[in-house]
Design a protein that fits this description.
The protein has 322 residues and is mostly helical. It has one domain. It is built from eleven helices and eight strands. Strands 1-2 form a two-stranded antiparallel sheet. Strands 3-4 form a two-stranded antiparallel sheet. β1 and β2 form a beta hairpin. α2 packs antiparallel against α3 and α3 packs antiparallel against α5. It is globular and about 55 Å long.
Length: 322
């Protein structure tokens, strides 16, 4: 009986040396005092995003035989769902990709240009007349509202990267995001707070006349009239449908069908006009067919840094270093 009790005590007792962290170490026994978690170490692959579900999606793609680019596309598509305050199919994409087989560094600038149907002079004139937020005082293009909208390049960037470095079908890469958009996911703590403050900002900017139209934002991202709280199951069937069309029809499904079709549903006439001008540019050129040049610069004795030079209309990828 004494032996049994001794064994139980040994198994349940906390080692004396683990009870108190070193001085100035916070609640960590080892490692950097300011670190919130231990370093992640892996042999075969790794993914890091700002949302655990997106990270898990990337890892699942790697385990299924996908490349790092496949995993990045899958994670990016999922982030557009689970963290809509930070990314989405209507945004831009930048990538620096190292190819270990060829020992080459590749760069992609999938940022969109200005709408075709609006000249610089027209934009400048419009900027003078457009209401501005009290927080936007530099006199340049407004920070919010349709005047600052550019061509969405992210989807085109997915397909540019996939054509060169992808292994799995795009439909397989987008399947997790489609699944969670259709079935729902629990909103995480920090993103719920961002979601709340962003929707409140949209409401304020609409009241100020800065943003022309937010009815669609309210319908999709404010179920029940408010931003979803932490832990609430959120679904986005519209995004599931969009991603399904992209998975089945490729980049053209987005650039030449989905976007032009969606702008007709915008209720505000001014916002609808700018969407039409963007649609013209997409139909003419695609969203991101530019060729960035990557230059490696050394700043004194500091570590080398990579800089993407301005893009020009051509193929997207280029060999960065020879």
């Amino acid at each position: 009986m004494r032996i049994s009790l001794a064994i139980i005590a040994l198994l349940t007792a906390t080692p004396l040396w683990a009870q108190t962290a070193p001085k100035d170490q916070g609640d960590r026994y080892s490692g950097a005092p300011g670190a919130s978690r231990s370093a992640v170490i892996a042999q075969n692959g790794m993914a890091a995003t700002s949302q655990p579900l997106a990270t898990q999606v990337a890892l699942d793609i790697l385990k299924a035989g996908g490349s790092a680019v496949d995993a990045a596309i899958a994670a990016n598509a999922t982030l557009g769902l689970v963290e809509p305050v930070g990314s989405g199919v209507g945004g831009d994409l930048f990538a620096i990709i190292w190819d270990p087989k060829t020992q080459k560094l590749h760069g992609l600038n999938a940022s969109g240009c200005a709408p075709m149907g609006q000249s610089l002079k027209q934009l400048q004139e419009r900027t003078k007349k457009t209401p501005r937020s009290a927080r936007d005082t530099d006199g340049t293009i407004a920070d919010w509202g349709s005047a600052s909208v550019t061509i969405p390049g992210a989807v085109d960037g997915w397909f540019e990267m996939h054509a060169k470095f992808g292994k799995l079908p795009m439909a397989q890469n987008l399947a997790p995001a489609i699944h969670y958009a259709d079935k729902g996911f629990p909103v995480s703590e920090l993103i719920a707070q961002y979601w709340k403050t962003n929707t409140a900002a949209f409401e304020m900017l609409k009241t100020e006349g800065v943003i022309e139209e937010i009815d669609n934002m309210r319908r999709v991202y404010m179920p029940g009239g408010k931003a979803p709280a932490e832990g609430l199951l959120f679904k986005n069937p519209d995004l599931a449908m969009t991603l399904t069309e992209i998975a089945e029809g490729g980049r053209d499904a987005f650039t030449k069908a989905i976007w032009p079709r969606r702008w007709t549903a915008i209720s505000n006439a001014s916002a609808r006009r700018i969407a039409m001008k963007i649609s013209l540019r997409i139909k003419a050129n695609g969203s991101s067919r530019f060729r960035p040049i990557i230059a490696v610069m050394t700043c004194g004795k500091s570590r080398p840094m990579v800089r993407a030079l301005p893009h020009c209309k051509s193929s997207t990828f280029s060999k960065a270093m020879t």
